[in-house]
Amino acid sequence: MSVLVVGSVAFDTLKTPHGDVDNILGGAATHFALAASFFTDTKVVAVVGEDFTEEQRKVFEGRRIDLSGLEVSKGKTFRWGAEYGQNPNDRTTLFTELNVFENFRPQIPESYRDCEYLFLANIHPELQLEVMEQVTKPRMVAADTMNYWIERTPEALARMLKQIDVLVINDEEARQLSGEQNLVVAAEKVRAMGPETLVIKRGEQGVLLFSKDDRFAAPGYPLEKVIDPTGAGDSFGGGFAGYLASCRSLSDATLRQAIVIGSVMGSLCVEDFGTRRLEALSRDKVIERYREFKRLTQFEDL
Ligand code: AMP
Fold first, then answer.
1. Is the pLDDT of residue 50 over 90?
2. Which has the closest alpha carbon to 266: 6, 31, 83, 25?
3. Rounded to the nearest 5°, which phi and psi values hold at 86?
4. Nearest CA to ligand 1 atom 5
5. Residues 6 or more apart whose Cβ sits within 8 Å of residue 192
6. Helices (H), ranges, the chain
7. Which end of the chain is more exposed for a tag (fewer CB within 10 A), N or C?
8. Whole-angstrom distance, CA of residue 117 vs CA of residue 19
9. Predicted confidence (pLDDT) per residue in 237-248, tens digit
């Protein structure tokens, strides 16, 4: 089963304690698609400008990624700049140039409309709703959002939440959305807003899953060096949704595996700048890290 992602393709300028890069390929849909393509066919709906090069397109080629929903518009590709402190969660956005992203109205190609697994990356909740209207009968709709939309478009966000199955957000967003500090209380409040399943990403501290009948926690993989945290959340989303689509199951056991697969992809992504690590990655390495996660969290009964 394939997965469809709608989100940004970007040029990122990044500064971390391990170096700087200018205008490298990034964006939520990019990281998502590279991660998901290890598990299933991945369809991308996004927009780029005329400055998007053949070389950048090649990054997606030779993988299970379909770019026929990538629109090329007059103008420049979305650009984003950020700087990280010693603590990888400590990120300052330096600039956001929306460019062609400003007037992005996602058009789902006819051939994508029967897609059963849908991931709405962080875009305006009205656009997330428009995408849902264009997809015939998805088995699973997962979405991301951010503080910007929680603050500015609460009404549209509330409508979006009512229509999705899985929400994937970080801990601060869960607190802000629910008005609760305690994450367990926050999670139940957010689930009551619509999504039956809630995934809370906590950076280095790992991930929490709250579903109807299950709760699960995966640790962050202990890494000596985080070279560039950009895209960890989207790589998580790609691994998570791509794996679920490949299994055709949404059981609690599969959701738990998907959380670990997402954590594997996020932890690998941050080992180099931008998409470099995912570009160079082998399937064997993905499986090896999955097994390391299992060893890391297994213990004997009393
Ligand atoms: P993450 O590190 O998972 O939060 O995702 C970072 C990616 O999101 C970068 O590659 C950016 O290009 C992209 N990004 C940053 N701000 C936005 C935004 N406002 N809308 C869409 N994508 C964004």
1. yes
2. 31
3. -60, -35
4. 231
5. none
6. 28-36, 54-58, 125-134, 147-152, 154-163, 171-178, 183-192, 232-247, 252-269, 276-280, 283-297
7. C
8. 37
9. 999 999 999 998
Of 150, 148, 252, 146, the C-alpha closest to 197 is 252
CB atoms within 10 A of CB 94: 12
Q: Which atom of ligand 1 is nearest to the CA of 233?
A: 3
Pocket test for ligand 1, best of 6, 44, 80 (most atoms within 8 A of CB): 80
CB 286 within 8 Å of CB 268? yes
Q: What is the pTM of this model?
A: 0.97
* Ligand 1 center to 250 CA (angstroms): 27
Tell me which of 8, 32, 278 to substitute to probe ligand 1's pocket, judged by most ligand atoms within 8 Å of the beta carbon.
8
CA 28 to centroid of ligand 1, rounded, Å:
5
| Distance in Å, CA 269 to ligand 1 centroid | 14
d(CA 221, CA 206): 8
| pLDDT tens per residue, range 250-289 | 999 999 999 999 999 999 999 999 999 999 999 999 999 9
**CA atoms of 1 and 245, how far apart (whole Å):** 5
Ligand 1 center to 173 CA (angstroms)? 15
Tokens of 98: 């929306």
> Average pLDDT over the chain, rounded to whole?
97
Residues in the chain: 302
